[in-house]
Every structure is written in structure tokens, then in C-alpha cells.
Design goal:
Structural class: alpha+beta
Helix content: 40-55%
Shape: globular
Distance between the termini: 72 Å
Order of helices and strands: HEEHHHEEEH
Number of helices: 5
Radius of gyration: 18 Å
Length: 162
């Protein structure tokens, strides 16, 4: 009987963790964020900026920040830089690819890192009515990301335009 109760408790905790992860993914795919140019430059081929993410919990916003940063480079652009995907239908045409790419633990992670290990500065966490707005400095390896998306057939190669 004791083993049965322990098993049920472990099952409940596992299901709760899985639900929380899926909820964060659902919030991520709403793509609610802003990009701020912070005037910093990284190594050649990288983009450094601050991404402001909206979420109900601060921890969720921190987890989403990396996804939002890569999403911004691919679809929105940042600062004066245009997005890698200049065709507005790329996401719809390759929805399955991007759902897999941006899932928790997906390939997007290999192209982004948090500046200063994600340490937040004063003013980087803003409490709104029912959610938080969290600003995180990120570095995205945009040149590597472009090559990956070209190789995957998601965007056209730069040299194919000439």
C-alpha cells in the first residue's frame, strides 16, 4: 500500500512538471516580446541585444528569453538588422520545422547564450498587473543560425539571390 501511494505521488509530480513545461511552450508560441538595441557588439557574426519577455512567472520569462531572441533574429530583426527570413510566409510554410526547432530543448539553443549568464540588472524585472516583463541580454550567433536554416531548406541562401 505504501509503495502504491509513493507511486501515485511520483506520478502526480511528473504530470505536474510536464503540464508546466507544456504551458511554458504554449506561452512561448504566442511570441510576446520586444527587442531593445543596447548598443553593444559581439564577435563578428553575432548579435547582442536585450529581449523583453512577457510571462506570468519570472522563471518562465527567463526560459522564454532565449527562444524569443532567436525568433527575433529569424522573423522580426533587431536594431537596424533585417530578419533572416525576409519572406513573411516562412513560418507558415515550415511550421513543423519551427515547432520542433523552438520546443523546449530544441535546436534553437545552440545559437543563443545569455550575456553574463542571464544576470539581471536593476530595472530588468517589471511587475505588470498579472504578469512580468523581464529583460535579458542575449548573444545570438546569427551567421551560424543563417547557415543552419539555409542547410535545412527553410530560408534561401544569400548567394542564390545573385
Amino acid at each position: 500500500m505504501k509503495r502504491y501511494i509513493i507511486f501515485l505521488l511520483l506520478l502526480c509530480f511528473s504530470l505536474q512538471a510536464l503540464y508546466a513545461k507544456k504551458k511554458v511552450d504554449r506561452e512561448t508560441f504566442a511570441w510576446r516580446y520586444e527587442v531593445e538595441d543596447i548598443g553593444k557588439t559581439g564577435k563578428q557574426g553575432t548579435a547582442v541585444f536585450k529581449v523583453w519577455t512577457y510571462a506570468k512567472k519570472k522563471d518562465a520569462a527567463l526560459m522564454q528569453a532565449s527562444k524569443n531572441a532567436v525568433h527575433a533574429v529569424v522573423f522580426k530583426g533587431y536594431g537596424i538588422q533585417k530578419p533572416l527570413a525576409s519572406d513573411g510566409t516562412v513560418y507558415e510554410k515550415h511550421r513543423a520545422f519551427f515547432n520542433d526547432f523552438f520546443k523546449t530543448g530544441g535546436d534553437y539553443q545552440q545559437f543563443v547564450s545569455l550575456v553574463n549568464n542571464g544576470a539581471l540588472e536593476a530595472g530588468d524585472v517589471i511587475k505588470l498587473k498579472k504578469e512580468y516583463k523581464v529583460g535579458v541580454k542575449v548573444s545570438v550567433r546569427k551567421d551560424e543560425l543563417r547557415k543552419y536554416l539555409e542547410k535545412s531548406g527553410v530560408i534561401e541562401a544569400m548567394n542564390s539571390m545573385f
